[in-house]
């Protein structure tokens, strides 16, 4: 690890102008490339106290051994040079989207004498017109097959084309009318190129004018009694309409736009792009990236724009680019896009209407992509084994923690304080052993005290269940979404001992205070063979009991990824329980406060009177008429209803706004 002060340039040496800078390691490899509209303050920010830097930035500057910069005239030039250097040097600390070369595009090789329509993958080539990308190659072939009836452009390879020219006979497509057979001179090169350009125009969205022209030609042919020609034109129109139906209509006008959405967590991000041309979704692609550098949504959008349009020019850059967040240097990025296109490009966040609705769809696709990526990554046995080994090594454990338990506290402004316990065995969630807790020893908000109580209760039960089966309680009940898989070992009565297995690693959601509370609880119970750590969400730091400094796992560590998944699952489960309790509290009625009145008799009262309002108006004698209700119970019910006041709406103390009773968002304090 290098000391940044050893290579820090003097402030007077750094120019106060736009530029691009490179950090290099001791082997002179470029490890990070960045840009700035003013180099002096940007570079100076890297050489402050290491404790004030983001962990990823701290790792980068301590890995580097030198820094250099290049001055440019404008922010647009800085953006262009940054993209070029990232592509050239592939720096390890820059965000790099995993290239989606598996996504096929429909390509028209306008750079050839006889343009060819084909499926293409990989980097784009100069002089080739691209449409898409598509999700599957077969989708391209179906579209092309329909359109060749109207635009019989060459689709054969160079070898087939040359062979047909030598023997003087076209291939099968030429005989069935799906190729104009330029190989044998049925059309001139100029006529064939015109067909290819019409094909491109149609694919680019200029469809209405062409179909109307064909319809006019069909009517004219029918009027002149050229019925065969009219029939062919009718079939051509139908084929084009079927091709259009394969692309969803999203806008009524001929909008050309790309919509970019980002789904992210602390470690990874997924980007989805929908390409809309002529008001229709013409293609879709997606990337996933590790968040190697300290980057927010706006930064991820800027990197996506660079990768998406860095090699593009002309119509490949649409008139409008819709994003979830504007880049920090919005003006420079918009100018760079306009330069790539050759005309103005609108870069904005959709605020209303169809475009906002479609952006929500793109966002859902990005979220699903991220979830699928994480699921695939988590299901790999080799990856899970490596993750457990990395955790054991980082925390100095004797062996890999095959059973991990994680605890999280959740509440809403100090009300309905609950906790969750989730279990991962061999790197996979074991939902049958999830547990949930109500905080019972005190009222109000105190995460540290709550954590101490939960750990104490859980491991007191562990010690007890070594010898006997514990009692079932509502607050320690199995999760509603847990499986019904039986747990073991079982007690003498056949009931499973639910807390009999100790974890090798206990994880708490939080930093030093929560870790210290968990350790204190175990010490008080005399348990000294369970490792403890905490995962602080903001910086993804791992805290150990008694340590003043956190353990920072490598950014690419599978161990860190597994700890994050465990922590996030505990957080999700705690919030789910907290919301359920809150909703139940909001829905509670005045009859719930009547002691000794069970659900059956409550339902009987409501059924008899029709509503609580009418029940309030009833006399004690009328209440006694309900089957199962005695006079003493009737008096208790009447007294409870008389004292019940109308429920006041919940109010957000921060904003003063009335909150809807919908089990809305709950945040962790």
From TrEMBL:
Keywords: Coiled coil, Cytoplasm, DNA damage, DNA excision, DNA repair, Excision nuclease, SOS response. This is UvrABC system protein C. Gene3D superfamilies: 5' to 3' exonuclease, C-terminal subdomain, GIY-YIG endonuclease, UVR domain, UvrC, RNAse H endonuclease domain. Residues 208-243 form the UVR domain. The UvrABC repair system catalyzes the recognition and processing of DNA lesions. UvrC both incises the 5' and 3' sides of the lesion. The N-terminal half is responsible for the 3' incision and the C-terminal half is responsible for the 5' incision. Residues 16-95 form the GIY-YIG domain. It comes from Streptomyces beijiangensis. The keyword Protease does not apply. GO terms for molecular function: DNA binding; excinuclease ABC activity. GO terms for biological process: nucleotide-excision repair; SOS response. Residues 211-247 form a coiled coil. InterPro entries: GIY-YIG_endonuc, GIY-YIG_endonuc_sf, GIY-YIG_UvrC_Cho, Hlx-hairpin-Hlx_DNA-bd_motif, RuvA_2-like, UVR_dom, UVR_dom_sf, UvrABC_protein_C. It is found in: Cytoplasm.
